[in-house]
Amino acid sequence: MTEQDASNQLILLQQKRIHKLQTENAQLTSDNEYIKKALYIALHERYNGTPLVISADRLAEAQTEFLSDENLNGDHLVWVKGAQE
């Protein structure tokens, strides 16, 4: 393998890595937007404009695992893991 071939191979590997990272970033951005919209809906329906107070203690104990499903209409159902078990 020549130096040029090795260089080209390295470039191809880097391009694949860049593409993979761009895809992962796009998915994370999409997931983040979904979470923000879900939080908006939950806060609007539950608190109707009243702020939700999140202390450092509550944040430290909060779990980040959720369960999800769909109802017959195709709407997303999301609940805290352990709440329905």
What does the model show?
With 85 residues, this protein is mostly helical. It has one domain (3-80). Helices cover 60% and strands 12% of the residues. It contains two helices and two strands. It has helices spanning 3-47, 56-61, and strands spanning 66-70, 76-80. The chain starts with a helix and ends in a 5-residue tail after the last strand.
What characterizes the major β-sheet? 2 strands, antiparallel
Q: Which residue ranges are poorly predicted, with pLDDT under 50 across at least 5 consecutive positions?
A: none
Radius of gyration: 21 Å
What average pLDDT do the residues reach?
A: 90
What is the strand content? 5-15%
Structural class: mainly alpha
Query: How do the strands line up in the largest sheet?
Result: 1-2
How helical, in percent, are the residues? 55-70%
Number of strands: 2
Number of helices: 2
- Write down the overall geometry: elongated
Distance between the termini: 59 Å
The domain count comes to 1
**Helix-strand sequence:** HHEE
